[in-house]
Write a structure and sequence with these properties.
The complex is a heterodimer. Chain A is α/β, with parallel strands linked by helices. In chain A, 37% of the residues lie in helices and 24% in strands. Chain A contains 9 helices and 10 strands. Chain B has one domain. Chain B contains 9 helices and no strands. In chain B, 46% of the residues are buried. The chains are: A alpha/beta, B mainly alpha. The A-B interface holds A 45, 48, 50, 74, 77-78, 80, 82, 84-91, 101-102, 104-106 and B 36, 120, 123-125, 127-128, 130-134. The complex binds adenosine-5'-triphosphate and magnesium ion (MG).
Amino acid sequence: MIRFEQVHKKFGRRTVLDDVNFEIKKSEIFIIVGLSGAGKSVSLKHMVRLLSPDAGKVWVGDDVVSEATGTELERIRARFGYLFQSGALLQWMSAGENVGLPLREHTRMGDEEIDRIAREKLKLVHLEEAYDRAPADLSGGMRKRVSLARAIVRNPEIVLYDEPTSGLDPLTSRTIDKLILETRNQLGVTSIVVTHDLHSALSIGDTIAMLHEGRMVELATPKQFIASKHPVVRSFLESQYITTRGEWEGNATP
Amino acid sequence: MAAAGRAILTTVRNTGRALLMLFEAFFHMRSMFGKRMRHEVMNQMYIAGIKSLGVITVVGMFTGMILALQTGLELRRFGLQQNIGTAVAVSMLREMGPFMTALIIAASVGSAIAAQMGTMVVAEEIAALEIMSINPVRFLVMPRLVALMVMMPLLTVYTNMVGIFGGAVIGTTQLEVTMTAYFDNARLYVVNKDLYVGLLKAMVFGIVITTVACHQGFATREGAVGVGQATRRTVIISFLTILILGYIITRMFYTL
Ligand SMILES: Nc1ncnc2c1ncn2[C@@H]1O[C@H](COP(=O)(O)OP(=O)(O)OP(=O)(O)O)[C@@H](O)[C@H]1O
Ligand SMILES: [Mg+2]
């Protein structure tokens, strides 16, 4: 569904992606982990051509998104929903209007129908009461969830989640995990999830990829991932108290 | 030498980009009559118009008063102070009205637009619009452009009125010219062309302010620092452009 072919990306003299190759299959939940600044968000942005590679290609289905322009790019982007790391809600619109915006701009639906769908999507993220509130009045986690509702409002084929659960309490995080699983199971959505939360990565992911200093150092199923011998992966797992057997190991272990 | 060359090149390139954006915004004006856009245009007009009305009143008033005092004292030396009405009215309509209004709008509305666009870039809101295939030029620039193209002339008319009134106050209190004489004199020598040229200027200045502000805002990089820079550049570049274009327009319509 999405394929990175020898993708290189530099900002100035800083190499951020250094020969990155991988393929994401249809309806897969593909997790990207890595330390801060590893190039996770940059990778996501390449999938919708918010950034273009210096060398290499990014494929979406049969299209080379990294070279697409104009209406072709619009057509490719229409297949995506994108939850930005920062939320990226328009400040002067209410939460509900933000969620309905893609429908208002791209469909001929009436206001009432848009309203109904927006409420429905907000309900999925447990925020139906936030419909009329301004983004500035919401907490960081709530903004993120509104943004998630907006990302899925047009039922996209592919959803890019940039840290969907960072800043959320554990209970809400699990709700989001469930939402990602459900959209895949019911609608066959392909999900790419950037996260620091290894617990959710291990429980919902089909494939886990680890980026480190611009390279993909591991690409494995959750089972293989926790057994990985790669030193970077090992220290990453240990930093979250996860052992090779996938158990949580901390002071409170009985 | 090389640095100067580079600076010129950058300026030319930025001007080119800003003009392209402006043409695109003009092109998208056909969508301004849709229900939602109409609403947004009205909203922007309200923001641009109401926000600076207080400052404009004070500035307009004092501009007229200064003009009256300055020219009035000179004219009195030759016993011609009853012509003060014309002097103030013509200067206000042709030059000072549009100019002062534009400076205030650039500093208040222009800088606010740049800050808002810059913040949207930093918060990835512009990127989000692009992903949703919502053209930022149509969605953000066009309504602001229409709003300022309409509001700048309207505000200029207001500045002119306040300024001419300010001149009248000085005329009656310090130059012994009666109200009636002042306004009769003004009406006698002011021609429609003075008003039209001034309003044309105002509209051009409105276009300049929106274009510079949006272009600088969109070009914001590097977080909150970048937003501050974009705002500062907007004010400086707008001021310079307004000054230069103001001269060129006057030169075009009033040959010696
Ligand atoms: N538009 C840009 N211009 C210049 N440098 C950039 C840009 N975007 C990202 N970078 C740089 O690329 C590197 C990777 O950034 P990226 O946002 O992908 O990190 P990340 O893996 O998402 O980290 P985090 O977990 O903190 O979000 C960083 O060093 C960042 O400074
Ligand atoms: Mg990131």
